[in-house]
Every structure is written in C-alpha cells, then in structure tokens.
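Progress note, project year one: complex with magnesium ion.
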Amino acid sequence: MHELSVAQSILDIVHQSVPQDELADVRIVRVKVGTFSGVVADSLDFCFSAISAETPLAKARLEFEHIPFAVECRQCQKTFENDIGFVVCPVCGGVDTAVLSGRELQVTEIELENEKDKIA
Amino acid sequence: MSIITVERKVLEKNDEIARRNRATFSQRHLFVINLVSSPGSGKTSILERTLEYFNKRVKVAVIEGDVQTDFDAQRIARYDAPVVQIVTNGGCHLDAKLVEDALGSLDLTGVKLLIIENVGNLVCPSNYDLGEEMKVVVASTTEGDDKPLKYPGMFQHASVLIINKIDLLPYVNCSMNTLKRNALQINPSLKVFETSCTTKSGIAEWCSWLEQNIHHEDGEGKDIGATRR
Ligand SMILES: Nc1nc2c(ncn2[C@@H]2O[C@H](COP(=O)(O)OP(=O)(O)OP(=O)(O)O)[C@@H](O)[C@H]2O)c(=O)[nH]1
Ligand SMILES: [Mg+2]
Ligand SMILES: [Zn+2]
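Model obtained:
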C-alpha cells in the first residue's frame, strides 16, 4: 500500500506542469492506471484528496483511465486480455508472448477551469 | 476550459535514480539482485546459506530493507559481509533513492555480488526498480501453491523463483507441480530453484548459478537464462 507516496508524486507532477497562479483552477487530473500498476484507484483517489485538501489544489480530483492487461502472441499473432496476469497464449499455448499494456501509471492530462468558464 | 497535456510516468523520479544506480553497478562490475517475497518466506535465511556457501571466496555485500529493526542486518553481519540496514519506518517497499543513499555507506571494495533484501511484501516492491540486474522472488511451501496467481505482479517482474522450505512439503498442503505451473503461467521464462535452508538442499545449485552470473558480469560466461524485466 504505497498509494500515499504515489499521490504525492502526482501532486508534484501537477505542481511542475501548471503555473503557480493557475493551480486553483485545476479540476481534473487524468491518470492512466494499468491492471498491474500496483495501485488501487479508489485508495489513490482517497489519498490524493487527503493531501490536496486545504491547498490550492483542493478542487482538483483524479480521473482514471483503466488500461487492461493485454498480451500479444508472437506465434499466432493473436492478442488477448485478462486480469489474472497470464501470459501464455490461450489460443495456441505459445509462451513467446509480449505484454502490450497493463503496467501503466501515468499522468496524461490536466484540465483547468479558466476565468472565462467561471463567468459563463 | 483548458487542457494541459502531460504524459509523465508517476514513478519517473524513481526510474531515473534506478538508471543511475544501474550505471553505478555496471561501472563496478557488480551483479545486483533484488530479493523479494512475502514476510517470512526465508529471504534472510537464503542469504545466510548463500554467504555460508561462498565462505568469502566470492565477496558479497547486502542491503537489508525492513519496516523496523536491524535484526536482519545483524544476522548478516555475523558472516562478516558488508551490510547496511535500511529501515523504512512503515514504508512497504524499497525505492531507488533509499538504495542510492545506502550505497554511500557500503564498502564495495572487491565485492562482486550485491544482494538487496527488500521489505517482506509481495505487492509493492514489484513496481519499484532499484537498478538491479534482476528480481528474485522467494515463495515458500507454507504459503501454499496459489501465490503466483494471487500476486502475479511480482512473478511477472522476477527472473528467478526460489521455492523455499521444501523440507516442510510433507506437512503442508502445497503441490510443487501446481506452484510451478501457476508461476510459469504468469512468467514462462522464470528460472526455478527449490531450496531448504534447514537441510541446505538446493543451496549449492542456487549458488553455482549465482556464481556463473557473477562471471558473466566480467564478460566470461554468457546468457544462462538471466533476463532483465
Ligand atoms: N523449515 C524451514 N524453515 C525455514 C526455511 N527457511 C527459513 N525458515 C524459517 O522461516 C522463518 C523466517 O525466515 P527469514 O529468513 O527470517 O524470512 P524473511 O523472508 O527474511 O523474513 P522477513 O525479512 O521478515 O520478510 C525463520 O524462522 C526461519 O528459520 C526452510 O527452508 N525450512
Ligand atoms: Mg528478512
Ligand atoms: Zn498463440
């Protein structure tokens, strides 16, 4: 359970990506989370709210894009997904496979509400 | 509304320090393994048996990671090996920065093999690269044969599986075949060893494999199934 330190890293990335005077405008931080990223999205969400409360980022929340664990078989070229972590091809039994996705833990976008939006 | 595109890995800072550690290790021709398992699978016992086997013929240094206490470092110090204890104070895994800092207080003169014993935890350490050459996961027979399926992350990232406490097989409900089959479904390229730290069965096989890898780092042997993941 290291969601707290992961939340802190996300907070750092937001601070480095958004000008100081616009931090309070941040509404959504989009995060890609692979099945095997090693973090639990709900728990990460909770930790992020806890450490951003009473800071300029208090109105920011995390939005997750879940990335499935996907594997490609080099023997039969089929692609398959599962959330168990199996890498053996279910079609031909091949073990020469490549993991395509499922290990992501990445901040992709930060959405801000501008002055203009507030007036409208 | 405006959108800032970021595309940054959350653990990029760790990965960057891990790259730095890896460069340091390769400069020093150090073979480095990251030993991971759930609490009590026998990581420190395997280290003790390994140090005993090499009996200073191969110089081994150890970094111990624990949530509290320096008990494990004390156990290792008895073998007269350079050892440093990292106490994470609640932290569930070692990260590259902790290892980088620990390296500063280790005398690596003549050391060929560095073993980092991670915090006993089958989940979190799998996501933190320390700069090691490979992860070695220990699963003991007393934990049952379903661990690879319950904690696939760790088995995906490991290059070697040590099945420990095989002396207890007659007393526990654990099938070696099932355990191996489960592990290989998650990671078919796992190299598997079976050990007992009580009877010392399998320790020689594990240690000679390690020794081959150490030579390999000097450019002697080559490719014996060790892969970096
Ligand atoms: N019967 C038997 N007991 C073992 C074996 N290996 C380790 N043990 C025992 O298992 C217990 C835990 O061993 P450790 O080596 O401390 O395990 P560890 O993985 O280092 O534990 P943590 O660092 O706390 O996560 C000790 O009581 C050991 O004596 C083995 O092969 N057979
Ligand atoms: Mg230990
Ligand atoms: Zn196939």
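The helical segments of chain A are 3-17, 41-52, 115-119.
The first strand of chain A starts at residue 26 and ends at 34.
No further modelling is planned for this target in the current period.
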